[in-house]
Fold:
Amino acid sequence: KAGVTQTPRYLIKTRGQQVTLSCSPISGHRSVSWYQQTPGQGLQFLFEYFSETQRNKGNFPGRFSGRQFSNSRSEMNVSTLELGDSALYLCASSLAPSGNYEQYFGPGTRLTVT
Amino acid sequence: GDSVTQMEGPVTLSEEAFLTINCTYTATGYPSLFWYVQYPGEGLQLLLKATKADDKGSNKGFEATYRKETTSFHLEKGSVQVSDSAVYFCALSYSGYSTLTFGKGTMLLVSP
Structure:
């Protein structure tokens, strides 16, 4: 079956702009999590969604927001982009929110802010 | 808060050498522990996991044992291959949540 899909794969934006990233989970998966990966900070947790509800949120400013739709697809939005937001944004899906269920990661969206 | 510490890389080995990547954690509860692998240009893949103390996770020749007394989850492989070259991440999560807390990652480079 198809894996986790993230669109777009690459994105270049200018400081001050906003951006929306999309994640389509594996069919049947209802839990979606987002992570930011940078060389300096490594992998940092952004959000976790299950059944359209945000269950957990990482330590990021309010410029970072997300949502999940009834078909489990998820979007994250970053407003007023800063140079430091340049990163690989990874989405992961699983059947349900539990360490007992394997999380499957997408290939990521590479965001470059200039 | 919770945290995961991994040995810094890169770890450079010759093919068929023994591999150990150290991972220790600080946790407020009783987490599950994971090793993920990231190949160049790809997302993360689950390599193995252990959900309680003394459990041993294993996959593709890799092993790690959940040691509560030393708060460690070291990754080992008896004979590495060039195809094992990747970045390895140790992580933890709690029951009821998908949220993963990752270590910084350790790059492994295996030469023929």
